[in-house]
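Per reviewer request, we include the raw input and output of the structure prediction for the construct analysed in the revised manuscript.
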Amino acid sequence: MGKEITTETRQGDPSRDPVFEDVGINQDAGNGKLLPSGEPGTRVPAGSQAGGSLKLLDVAASLGRHPAHDVGDGTTGTLISALDRYGIAEAVVAHTLATHHEPAAGNAQVLADVAGQARLWACWTVLPPTCGELPDGPELVARARASGVGLLTARPSSHGFDLAGPDMAPLLDSAAETGLPFLIDAAETDWRTVEAVTAAHPDLWMVLSDVGYRELRRLCGMLERHARVLLCTANLSGHLALEFLVERFGPHRLVFGTGQPVRDPGEAVLRLLWSELDDADVRAIGGETMRRLLAAPRPTVEVR
């Protein structure tokens, strides 16, 4: 890998995006070393008992019982225990009631579940307003912002709608205007649709999740063309894939995610902490970039 690439030469670095200048974020903060640092595998996230300065933020977790996988009771207590076990400081969570059944009820449930949980951010599952299940796009985004929601997601394949169609355009426009990030699983869409959405809404922060190593050629083309497309690390299991993508595009095009509880969180944690990336890149992927993008203003939680 070897080649040094500065953030000024990389596309789509959120830490250098004008959106962060508008809200007064210090774009040059946080360049210290992780504790401890040195040989591969010695990085320790702050959520672990050993201490450390890395505060992992999982952008792809969920609450609620899963209808197809026996992966636990889906309660906040179980999730917090998993975060503690794997040294993850915070998580953005959708609810399976929303993602697999009824988004309106599931979105209300996830707000109730994260209330009083300083380490959890709510993710809402959205639909087009055509059947009256959810408000129209601008109203839904306004309610999400007012409710402290940090991220939106959608399941167009499962819920039967066109992500790139006219029914979703007002919502995506509003999300882009307000800086509310939008996460989509690869299994719920296709590359032509993602291309169409990002071309039509160039200011939208689009996070692609569950992208496997066999999709790297398509992914790299997407990252080249669209500066606000980011990759979640859930399911990114190719040998040196993290290192390859960071060298080509910079660490700020990747955000840490596990896919828990369906996926074992240890998979994503181990790949990041044992990577050949330097500490600053690990911190950027592990949580710094996503914290800048989360729409709702909340303090970063120090987990001891």
